[in-house]
Structure formats: C-alpha cells, structure tokens
Design a protein that fits this description.
Layout lengths: L2 E10 L7 E9 L2 E6 L8 E4 L4 E4 L1 E6 L15 H14 L3 H17 L2 E7 L5 H11 L2 E5 L1 E2 L13 H15 L7 E7 L7 H14 L2 E6 L3 H11 L3 H7 L7 E5 L5 H10 L2 E4 L1 H6 L7 H6 L3 E4 L4 H4 L4 H16 L7 H15 L17 E4 L14 H7 L6 E6 L2 E5 L2 E2 L4 H19 L4
Parallel strand pairs: 1-4, 1-5, 6-7, 7-8, 8-10, 9-10, 10-11, 11-12, 12-13, 13-14
Antiparallel strand pairs: 1-2, 2-3, 5-15, 15-16, 16-17, 17-18
Helix pairs in contact: 1-15, 2-3, 2-15, 4-5, 7-8, 12-13, 13-14
C-alpha cells in the first residue's frame, strides 16, 4: 500500500474543533492514516509543505464539465437567451470526442485550483465520455446525464421520456461506484422548464430505488420562475415539493428567486442548495439569500457552474465572491465571514455529495483528498499573524495551489499535472471548438 507523508505544513483540519497547527499528515492507500505535529515514518513519497497551507480538497457542488469547451462563447447575455441561442446549440452539437475533451479541460482547471470533488450535470448525449474522463484523470465526481424531454430547447437535445430514463438507468448501473468509488451517479433532470412531470415523477421513484441523488436547477432566473408558474400554477420549490422531489438527496443549483415559504420548504426537508455567485452575477440572475438560508438551518454549498457563465472554475474566486456580495446586499461587513464560506466549500460540499463522513475535512480515516497551497506570495503577504482561513478566502488564487492529492494519489505536484497532458489538451480544445461553432449553427 503506497504512503505519502506531508511534512511541516500549516494544517487546516476543518474537524469539529476546527483545529489548525503546523505539523505532518500521513496518507496510506487512499485514506488519511495519521495527523500530528510530528510523524516519523518511512514513506514512498515525502512532500515538504514548509510555509504552505494544507487544506481539505475543495468541493464544488454544481459544475457543467460538458460546457468547459464553450468558455467565451456566451458572454454578456441573460439566462434564457444564453441557453437557447448559445449553450443548447453548442451542447447539441457535441461529439463524443468534444465532450471528452471538454470534461478533461474542466477537470484540469479544477485540479489546478484545488478542487478535488464536484457534482456535475452532463449534457444529454455522450455522457459516458465525461465519466471516462473523470475515471482516467483520477478525479472524484457525482455525475449524471442531463435529462430533457419537454419544451423548446435545441432539437438535438430533446429526448423521448422513456429513452431519457432508460439511458440514465443504464449509465447508473454501469458507473455508480466505479473508479474505486470515485464516481457516483445522480439523476440530472435539467430543470422544471425542460422536464415533463412524468419524467420527474419517475426520477423520484428511481432515485429512491437505487438510493442515489437528484441534481437539478431551480429558481435561477425570474423568467424561469414565471414559466414554471404558468405551467403548474405554483412556484418552483412548491412544485418540486408537491411532486415529492424535495429531501436530503435533492441538490438544487441557485435558488435565487424563492419566497419565505420556499425557503422553509428547503430548510424543513433538508434539500441541498448550491450557491453559484459568479454565475449569478454575470448572468444578472440575482443574489441568493444565503445568510437567511443558513440561519434557517439549510444545507448550502458552493459551485462555479459552467465555464461559459463564469469564465473560470476557480473556487477561490467563488469563495471570495460568496462573502463579498452578501456584505454589499445586506450592508453588513460581518455577514458571511470567511470561516463560514470556507465551511461551505469543504464540509458543505461534502454534505451536498452525501459524503460528509468521507470528505470535507482532514481527519484520520477519511479519504485522502488533500490540497497544498502556497500563500507565500506578494498578493497574500504578509502571512504572519493573520487568520489563515481569511487569507485563503480573500487573498488566495487558484494559481497558488501547488499540489493536489485525490484518493491518496498525487494528480498535480508543484503545479505540474500528472494525469493530464496540459499542452495536448489545450491544442485539442482549440481545434475542436472551431469545428463545433460551425456545426452548432450559432451566430457570431
């Protein structure tokens, strides 16, 4: 069994006591074996983390790997036109190769920014290629095929209800628990606007049968909410609750335009909310009432969403934004402090994945998803006598991540990706997007 010893780092455990200290961390196989001020052990590999910060792998609970290839193709647009005129045509024109490269491009960026786990919503077609990319790169993800059987999306994305469900079940049975448990499946109906009630009800039953999660969007945009009300005569969360989808296995991205009753539904049912601050700002969707949801006891995590609506998948940017926008919204500098935000990016993400006993903190027996960050740089200095977590949330950048370990395996060491050829990937991405724009039919 392979062993890795991380020496002399400032360890931010995120355990119940929120312990922090300068010390060592020992990895054996895919788990954390020991954490102490000094560990003397013969190991296969020793990493010197002197003057660096050792943190739990960051967890992004809402990502679209399938969209990474479309970075820069949907700037300065509102949500529904952005979907209908740019994103859906591009997704509809995906080939197996382009979807695979898009996923690898996103995974490379995430690893280089210290994100070790995600909840991903794939596209309708070629979902298996995303799972192959996750497997091959050593990444960790909850992932599901996007389901769309209703509405007026690009015809290349529209499915028959039965075929959408059957393909989702096929993928679940093949990939749930694959890659030594790094890949787990979630049903992923896109949102109420593009899903029939028949599909949503069967997804609810199948999720219970297989004991897996459901991942969808809800109440991101006022126009979306108006469409749902016109379709079903009730608000978005009220409708999801009415048909029995709410609960601890439901993960909802955004939840901006929700009223007090919908907030109560979320808190009372244990439904998970994923805050995507940069996406919500860029698409001018609004600002979610995250402090209020937290006050009510809701489970909240953070995600970057997709590259076309955030332009990057940097969790440090999302943490900083998640804090600052609430301070401005509520005119309170004490709202959403750094420690709260860092909890959402670690423990909150683990809860969203239903893996809080395995991920989200550095503790003996948990899976070895570990990130080493260099804060010894101009934009983070001085680092002496400062709050380590505040420094991570407000000052640190993705480029400060030095080493990323997932499931006990080093996937990036000293800024070099070990499971992905970075130069080859960039060349493939540039070649494929040029062709895809032509095939998609989008206007430039």
């Amino acid at each position: 069994m392979s062993t890795i010893l991380v020496k002399n780092g400032t360890i931010v455990t995120m355990n119940k006591n929120r312990d922090q200290f300068i010390g060592d961390l020992l990895i054996e196989g895919n788990k954390i074996k020991e954490i102490a001020k000094v560990i003397n052990a013969e190991c296969d590999q020793v990493i010197d983390a002197t003057n660096r910060v050792v943190i739990p792998g960051l967890i992004q609970a809402h990502i679209h790997l399938t969209q990474t290839l479309f970075r820069g193709q949907g700037d300065d647009m509102e949500l529904m036109p952005w979907l209908r005129e740019r994103i859906w045509p591009l997704e509809g024109s995906h080939t197996a190769e382009s979807n695979y490269v898009s996923a690898k491009l996103g995974i490379a960026e995430l690893i280089m920014g210290g994100t070790t786990s995600i909840i991903d919503m794939a596209t309708v077609n070629h979902t298996e290629k995303i799972m192959e990319a996750i497997d091959e790169t050593g990444f960790r993800a909850v992932v599901g095929k996007c389901m769309m059987d209703f509405g007026n999306a690009d015809e290349r994305l529209m499915e028959e209800t039965r075929s959408s469900i059957d393909e989702s079940v096929r993928l679940l049975e093949k990939w749930h628990g694959a890659a030594d448990g790094r890949i787990t499946y979630a049903f992923a109906p896109r949102f109420v606007v593009s899903c029939s009630e028949e599909l949503l009800l069967e997804v609810k039953d199948l999720a219970k049968k297989y004991d897996v999660m459901i991942h969808t969007h809800a109440s991101e945009n006022q126009g979306e909410c108006e469409i749902v009300e016109s379709m079903h005569g009730m608000r978005n969360l009220e409708y999801l609750h009415h048909i029995g989808l709410t609960g601890e296995k439901l993960v909802l991205a955004h939840c901006i335009w929700i009223d007090d009753n919908e907030m109560k539904i979320i808190a009372d049912t244990g439904t998970k909310v994923v805050h995507c601050p940069s996406s919500n700002l860029k698409l001018a969707s609004g600002i979610a009432k995250i402090p209020e949801l937290l006050e009510m006891g809701a489970n909240v995590s953070i995600g970057a969403d997709g590259a076309p609506c955030t332009n990057n998948l940097d969790m440090f940017t999302e943490m900083r934004s998640a804090s600052l926008i609430q301070k401005a919204r509520l005119l309170s500098p004490t709202i959403m402090p750094a420690h709260t935000v860092f909890e959402l990016a670690t423990i909150g993400g683990a809860k969203a994945m239903c893996k809080e006993n395995e991920l989200g903190s550095l503790e003996v027996g948990k899976l070895a998803d570990v990130v080493i960050v260099d804060t010894n740089n101009i934009h983070s200095s001085p680092t002496r006598d400062v709050d380590v977590i505040a420094n991570l949330v407000y000052n640190t950048r993705a480029s400060n991540v030095q080493t990323t370990i997932i499931d006990g395996k080093i996937v990036m060491l000293d800024r070099k990706l070990l499971t992905i050829d970075e130069e080859e990937l960039k060349a493939d991405a540039n070649n494929l997007i040029a062709e895809q724009i032509k095939v998609s039919g989008i206007s430039k």
